[in-house]
Amino acid sequence: MDGISAESSLTGVSKAAVLLLSLGEEHAAGVMKHMGPKEVQQVGSAMATLENVTTETLDSVVGYFITTIGGQTALGIDSDKYIKNVLTSALGADKAGGVIDRILLGRNSKGLEQLKWMDPRSISGLIRLEHPQIIAIVLSYLDSDQAAETLGYLPSRLRPDVLMRVAVMEGVQPAALQELDAIMEKQLSGSSGTQSAAMGGIQTAANMLNFLEGSMSAELIDSVVETDEEIGQLIQDKMFVFDNLIDVDDRGIQALLKEISTDVLTLALRAADEALKEKVFANMSKRAAEMLRDDMEAAPPSKVSDVEAAQKEVLIIARRLSDSGEISLGGGGEEFV
């Protein structure tokens, strides 16, 4: 493999990985202590896959971070106000609201925040005997992929009720959230938390379904529709499936393709609409598009489950790029069915 020699070609996660590798174990560990579980996983994976980083790249990455940090003199100011102003400027008031609540809650929370570091099977074991409303609040606090997996481990009879409660939830009172956080922390051994947050809602329910295996997702949405057809339809309208990528603009498709391996893309496109395939080809170099076509034609038949897994991987990457503001997924919701 050729050495990595161009800082500009690296993603933000890869740049962070290069920097951490250059700091040494002690300092890198100190930095990672301040990261969330997803950030640790993303950066850790990037660190594990980096090979032959050139001195030129290292110098360039370090220079990039020095320049970036040099322009951010946040010391000595109201950090809460700073966070709100920065995120509102970057994301707009509507989108920033939920993110701000999540960040400030996460800073003060102990019990609920610990759940993010747990295995979904363990989380389900911890909450499965709680009232469905408590379970819905906990799932709304987790990231959608972790929440979906946790939901999958809950008893099948419980899932539709919990999903419905997530969908109709509009928020949680500070006192109730503080009490729940204390309960979770007591069970996990810790302290207390506070701060309210906008949680739950149609979009959150759709996000969870997007991450579930196809048949389970379809079964759940059917159960919700039987109970409340209007809410079921609202959830479906917010779901973002693989073929919805046709609505992402060319610049977004190009950014997405940089993050996806050829093997995953080849498999994911097997069951895609022709229009989406052509859009992908149109956003690649002529040579790369020809090679991808050849790979798809030469590939042996694939299991539907393998194709769905590849599409899910693509959509997870699309969600990450959307959350960071690098692409826009359009009017739909978030991820996988």
What's this, in brief?
The chain has 337 residues and is an all-alpha fold. It is 67% helix and 0% strand. Residues 1-5, 73-77, 190-196 and 331-337 have low confidence and may be disordered.
Q: Would you spell out the secondary-structure blueprint of this structure?
A:
Blueprint: H1 12-23, H2 25-32, H3 37-49, H4 55-70, H5 79-91, H6 93-108, H7 111-115, H8 120-127, H9 132-141, H10 144-153, H11 159-168, H12 174-188, H13 202-211, H14 214-227, H15 229-238, H16 250-257, H17 262-268, H18 274-282, H19 286-298, H20 304-323
Describe the structure.
With 337 residues, the chain is mainly α. The chain folds into 3 domains: 7-70, no CATH class; 109-238, Orthogonal Bundle (Annexin V, domain 1), CATH 1.10.220.30; 242-323, Flagellar motor switch protein FliG, alpha-alpha superhelical domain (Annexin V, domain 1). Helix 9 crosses helix 11 (159-168), helix 11 packs across helix 13 (202-211) and helix 13 (202-211) crosses helix 15 (229-238). The chain has helices spanning 12-23, 25-32, 37-49, 55-70, 79-91, 93-108, 111-115, 120-127, 132-141, 144-153, 159-168, 174-188, 202-211, 214-227, 229-238, 250-257, 262-268, 274-282, 286-298, 304-323. The longest helix has 20 residues, at 304-323. It has 20 helices and no strands. Mean pLDDT is 76; it is low at 1-5, 73-77, 190-196 and 331-337.
